[in-house]
Design a protein that fits this description.
alpha/beta, Nucleotidyltransferase, domain 5
């Protein structure tokens, strides 16, 4: 078997040590200093296949600071999104980001980007979604409000719906976790400049929930 190259190669394990989370639930003192991010699959009915949506959420305000949806998301896409996010955020002393151990997130490209930019990247333990609870909760809302209510004809249609949803979520939808304010209202109340918004979300449009 070995002589004829019929054996499976053993996976090469990264020698880079991960920074595991220190606290089960992050408790940042200031908005836009602790971000959680994750990928959710979105079914596009007209194409009969799943797209991938990457979302980055601010823990303190619950503000969606950036997102993108496309057929596949690779490590370079993660870096590109965070580069855009960093250009929109007001200057803060330190940023910590939290994610699970998805292949796109543990890549050297992503981790080198965070290290170069002074961003601390902490990882949740395997099979512990509760350690990434804020972004998991957000994606659960998307599942019930968007995925179970809409039939997407194509990827463009899905992006259009999500664009309007993110604007509604950030600026109109009240959240019990921030004193029954919208994330944008919470930031304004705390004298924090609003991020410009990403993922084609730079204009405010109406979004209604029937």
């Amino acid at each position: 078997m070995h002589d004829h190259a019929l054996l499976h190669c053993r996976p090469v394990r990264s020698a880079v040590r991960k920074l595991w989370i220190k606290e089960l639930v992050p408790n940042p003192t200031m908005p836009l200093t602790h971000l959680e991010f994750d990928i959710k699959y979105m079914h596009v009915h007209g194409n009969k296949r799943n797209a991938m949506m990457l979302t980055v959420l601010d823990v303190k305000s619950r503000y969606n600071v950036g997102w993108l949806m496309q057929w596949s998301i690779k490590k370079a896409d993660v870096v590109a999104l965070f580069q855009d996010i960093q250009r929109t955020l007001p200057t803060v002393t330190k940023i910590t980001v939290r994610s699970d151990n998805g292949s796109q997130f543990v890549s050297h490209l992503v981790r080198d980007h965070f290290k170069t930019n002074g961003i601390e990247h902490e990882f949740t333990r395997p099979a512990t979604p509760e350690q990434n609870a804020h972004i998991e909760s957000y994606h659960s809302i998307v599942e019930s409000v968007i995925c179970q209510q809409y039939t997407f004809t194509d990827l463009h249609h899905a992006n259009d719906v999500l664009t309007r949803w993110v604007q509604f979520y950030n600026h109109k939808r009240i959240h019990s976790g921030v004193g029954y304010l919208s994330p944008a209202e919470y930031l304004r109340k705390n004298n924090v400049s609003l991020p410009l918004g990403l993922g084609s979300t730079t204009h405010l449009t109406n979004f209604s929930i029937n």
